[in-house]
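To the team - glycyl-adenosine-5'-phosphate complex, inputs and output below.
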Amino acid sequence: MAFIVKKIIHGRDYFYLNENKRVNGKVKTKTLAYLGKRKKEAEKKAKEIIKKMEKVEEEKHKIPATSHPTSNLTIKKELSIENINELTNFCKRKGFVYPSAEIYGGFAGFWDFGHLGTELSNNIKKEWWKFHVQEREDVVGIDGSIITNPKVWEASGHVSSFLDVAVVCKKCGNKTKIDKYEVRKVKCEKCQGEFENKGEFNPMFTTQVGPIKEDSIKSYLRPETAQLIFTNFKSVQENARMKLPFGIAQIGKAFRNEIAPRDFLFRAREFEQMEIEYFIKLGQRCPFKLGESKSQILVYSEEMQLQKKSPEKMTFKHAYEKKLIGDWHAYWLEQEFLWFVSLGANKEKFRIRQHLKDEKSHYALDTWDLEYLFPFGWKELEGIANRTDFDLKQHEKHSGKELKIFDEQSKEKILPHVVCEPSLGVGRTFLVFMFDSYTYDDKRGNIVLKLHPKLAPIKVAIFPIVKRKDFKKISREIFNDLKKEWNVIYDESGSIGRRYARQDEIGTPFCITVDAESLKNKDVTVRGRDSAEQVRIKIKDLKEILKKAIEGENILKFGKKVDTRKKI
Ligand code: GAP
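Output:
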């Protein structure tokens, strides 16, 4: 049965003719045609298309077709990507992210990455590691365990510092956590209702280590990856012969029993962090150059917030010169911003905000967040705290082991300070790149996911233009060759337009088509996702050219024409 769907994109209506079909017991929706922007015109067009389809069916089966009754046209409404639920649905539909154990109704705060989401998330981590570890002389990486000696969490303050209680608003049901001494004083921020105390809240998940219950030890799933860096600090410094200032990086899972997991991957109970603890000798100045980015960013210091001023736009260098941010914070915030922008994020959607006094974690002297304008407002994307020597000192105290290192300059042993801890969630990063790359192309009538080629889950799709044996043979040869380098795909089903659309929607930056000319000239068509332009390339040069194009070089000279597409 065919039906009209209305999509609202940036407040404008777009109509489509869709059809639900049952395939292997599952109902699948297929878009049959784009119907224009007006309801009346869409209904007229839909009736014409359906009539044509009926005729084709009649011809085919020589029986009257009744599967698309024109009298039954209904209009369904779909939301644009600005709504987080729309992104959640899109990710599920295309195989990026699924609610965990969905066949059992899911599990709040847990998500599974599908075949495309796994690739995107791996590419994010790979690019983060390359920029923050591989390309730097002063940072090395580790990979600590998820469950460790519970004494680590006593020393770090995660066991005792969380003296919060879980509360529920009696009026609107808002769930949150607050200091246990504040329950009577604090009112619900949503409706000013009173809170009801629901008992002690500790965000750490507990587990038992040891197979026999009576002898087992209560331990925790780590709530941050950072502590494994502190406990291994001395060994890593000695083994890697690191000299201050230096950093230790780690990517890995973290777990928090969030009271209200929400907004898709934004606040999950199981998530991944990419963190660096950057150590200095107390007072050591930042030796790195500032001002690499001429771009201005909104700066929102604690003082501006307290004085109810608006954030001001300036460069990172200017913010440092105005003494709004310290040298190390200015440097690391700029590095993080540059990393996002280098991978295609929209620089206008970033700002930096200093934590207010009562917002800071128990270990932090000063914290700045790199914030991003999500559809649900400005939110923390990455936190950068100055943790001082808090953690190393605590671990020295609790373990009884010395963690000081020898300082060549003063010929003394010193305990380094963490001047900056860039700490970023993979899930939130995933959302940023999805939001900034999702566009709807009016002319093509399909979504185009303009991910940076380095992040794209599939780098190249290879198509024989029609299912001819000789075209298929060449296409397969190209596929077999390219798949040694990248995640590539071979597709021979459907019209060429449909195949392009399929790849546009999942962000594949390049499509290769093998046609009759390929047989004669030993070349193929390479189509660029963003401009839909095509160039012919010799098969023998493909790998070299694509290598550069995937790195982001415009070697194929796409996009020189005026881009008329509308960004959502
Ligand atoms: N080691 C410092 C630390 O963990 P945090 O501000 O609690 O600091 C750092 O977390 C980053 O981890 C956040 O900026 C965010 O990107 C990510 N993150 C934290 N909690 C998260 C959650 N529940 N779901 C998804 N990402 C989260």
